[in-house]
Structure formats: C-alpha cells, structure tokens
Amino acid sequence: MYDYTAGKSDWMAAGLPTEGEAAGRPTAATVARRDVPVCHLEESLRDVRERVRAAGWDACVVVNEARIVMGLLRAEQLRREEGLTVESAMRPGPSTFRPNVAIAEMAEFMAKHDLPNAPVTTSAGELIGLLVREDAERAVHECHA
Amino acid sequence: MPIHIGREDVQRLVAEGAQLAEVLPKEEFDEQHLPGAIHLPLRRIDARVRASLDPERPVVLYCWDSA
User: Fold this and answer.
1) How far apart are CA B46 and CA B40, in angstroms?
2) Alpha-carbon gap, residue A90 to A111, rounded angstroms
3) Which domain holds residue A35?
4) What is the pTM of this model?
5) What is the number of domains present in chain B?
6) Is the Cα torsion angle B21, B23, B26, B29 positive or negative in sign?
7) Is residue B35 part of a domain?
8) Taking the CA of residue A84 as centre, how many other CA atoms within 13 Å lie in the half-sphere pointing to its CB?
9) What percentage of chain A has pLDDT greater than the value 70?
10) In which domain, by residue range, is B21 found?
C-alpha cells in the first residue's frame, strides 16, 4: 500500500491530465504563468526591478529557498525608491489561490477586488505560477466562444 | 503502514500496473480525479477494499493533499 501524500492538489498543480466532469476545464493552475520571475527577501529592489523588466514582466513573486511565497512585488512596489531591499518594498503575505479554482471564479474575484495578478500555490504555499487577470479573462471568454 | 511516495513514483507504479484509489467524497471524485483512479471513500475503505481492488497489484491511495 502506497500513500501519494501530496495528492490530487500536487497532480493538478503539475498540469497533469485528469478525468471527471471538470477535467480539461481551465483552472488557476492551467492558466497561471509558470515563468514568472522570482526573487528573495534580501535582494536589492533595484537589481530585481532591472531583471524583472528585462524579462518583460511588471511583477515578481518573492519566495524563500523552498519556493514558498513570502510576498509580491507588483508594478507599484517595483517602482519604489532606490536603496530598498525586496523585503522592505514588497507586499507581504499576499492572498494566494489553490490550483483547482475554476478560471471563471478566479476572473470574477480578480475583477471584483481589482487584482492585476495573483499567485497560485499549493496548500503548503509553494509557488505554482502567477495568474494574470487578462489571461484569466481571456480564458473565460474562450470557454464561452 | 503505507509507504509515502511522490508524483513521479505514482506515475512509475501506475505504469507498472498499480491501482489508484481516491479516498475523497464522491462529489470531489466525480468532479476530477487522477486517470484510471477508482473511488474508495475513506469511511467505507475496510468494507469495500477487498471487493474493489486486486490483491495481487500494488495500491496507491491519495486524497487532496498532505494537510
């Protein structure tokens, strides 16, 4: 007897196929961008900003060594003054979302709370990716097309 | 005692013929489950386990996560 301890959440977070009524429907995990830049608490905000912008992003997820989400740098935090560390500039403890949340639910929540993006994590807080609101809204539109 | 395994182990074991069983409530199983998994709700696992599973093949149980 084996116990797949990380369970269905881990399977879905990896983007692996499933079966059932909701299989194939877009979720927070399937739409989230997994190539989102990440940085660490002690880094210089200026260095991170340059790296993030060079990669074509306006957001960066702050993680620890285990990729647990510690904070978020959205555009307004990335614009903050020179000389700050990531830790002093970031939004600490951002709301995170589970990978199985339906994309329509995510799009509605993000619009209601005016969130430009939202980290998607495992229940342990490990980063899966960053869901961008435009991507969520586009996925909903494509579902209904 | 069950042996704790990760995702890659699950894929390997299933490819080798292991049986997958989800122990979450039926509504959650019906909504989405791992490919080929059968439903074994936790409360009935003792009564149904013999009838539902091949005793000759390994069994991989899973729920939502480790929490």
Assistant:
1) 9
2) 22
3) 25-144
4) 0.80
5) 1
6) negative
7) yes
8) 15
9) 99
10) 7-62
Residue in A4, A14, A123 nearest the CB of B60: A4
Average pLDDT, chain B: 88
Residues of B in contact with A4 (CB under 8 A): 5-7, 9-10, 60-62
Residue B46's pLDDT is 67
**CA–CA gap between residue B62 and residue A2 (Å, rounded):** 9
CB-based burial, A119-130: b 16+ in 10 Å, e otherwise? bbbbbeebbbbb
Helix, strand, coil percentages for chain B (3-state, nearest 5): 40, 20, 40
DSSP state of A134: H
Chain A: closest CA distance from residue B32 (Å):
4
Asked, for residue B17, whether it belongs to a domain, the answer is yes
Residues in A closer than 8 angstroms to B5, CB to CB, are 2-5
Domain count across chain A: 1
Amino acid at A25: R
Give domain status of residue B1, yes or no: no
Residues of A in contact with B2 (CB under 8 A): 1-3
Rounded to two decimals, the ipTM of the complex is 0.90
SS3 for A53? helix
Do you know the residue count of chain B? 67
pLDDT for position B65: 83
